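ok posting inputs for the hypoxanthine job
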Amino acid sequence: MIDLIKRLPKAELHLHIEGSLEPELMFRLAKKNQIEIPYKDIEDVRNAYNFTNLQTFLDIYYAGADVLITQDDFYDLTWEYILKCVEDNVIHTEIFFDPQTHTARGVAFETVITGIKRALADAKAQYGITSCIIMCFLRHLSQEEAFETLEQALPFKDDIIGVGLDSSELGNPPSKFKDVFKKAKEEGFKLVAHAGEEADFSYIYEALDLLDISRIDHGVQSIKSDELMQRLKDEQMPLTVCPNSNIELRVFDNYKAHNIKELLDYGLNITINSDDPAYFKGYINQNFINISENLPLTEDDIITLVKNSFRSSFISDELKQQYLDRVDQAVG
Ligand code: HPA
Ligand SMILES: [Zn+2]
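and the output
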């Protein structure tokens, strides 16, 4: 099983680039940019990664992102993630970034996007890895601030395929961002949103009905509603599930308690992703390995999960077919 997981070419659809900041790079950039971080060494950082819910993670994640200042910092951050893609056989990735985390500190939108883009261009040139960029609005901030961010993104519209919604979910329902998502759609952006990670399934209904999204990030709380499950199945709405994240943030008590096998057996369009791999103990292969070692997943389930990611990606139908053929070849 582990051999199959490693051998399969994969797509990743739910990865926050700021969440791929490894402690080693955090220290190097903190020193270079003279930013104070509240850790004395790498071990101290790892010890701090002991979360009890989404918010306890976000507090540490935003503090870590403070070390990112220059275009090269964003290049290095993205490049390190690309090297993990090479290791894990990820051949296509759709990465999130949080512009507001950086613009609020005086780092220009252009600095962030240019650094990320440059690394992704090198990834294509050196390794043939394809990619898209999705910018997320921080849902703990206002819709007005999301509108300002959308405005800042317009000059880079060709580099950003879609918009998403992340950060503190409880108390910040999708309905809060209805108008800005409508505007983003009019501007031609694809739409996704985190929904039903910690908050109940009503947030998933709102994301579908009010934001008109084409993928749900997380969505694991859908299991609490039979009616919603049937709808997600009928529409084959993609769910970008992140097992390590769900365990580290205590959405489920442990891997054996994760509902991914049930979601898959019901016929939902489920994909596996790493979310914030530097914080959640592993990249995409480790997510696959953790669920396969703890749940009764078959080799066919693993292949389905991998194929779902390509099918649910924002690439052309032609490229999707090429990638699906590569999966079949790897299966043998
Ligand atoms: O899992 C997440 N949920 C919400 N916001 C986030 N920002 C980074 N990761 C996450
Ligand atoms: Zn996420």
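notes: The first strand starts at residue 10 and ends at 16. Strands lie at 10-16, 90-97, 130-138, 162-166, 190-195, 215-218, 238-241, 269-272.
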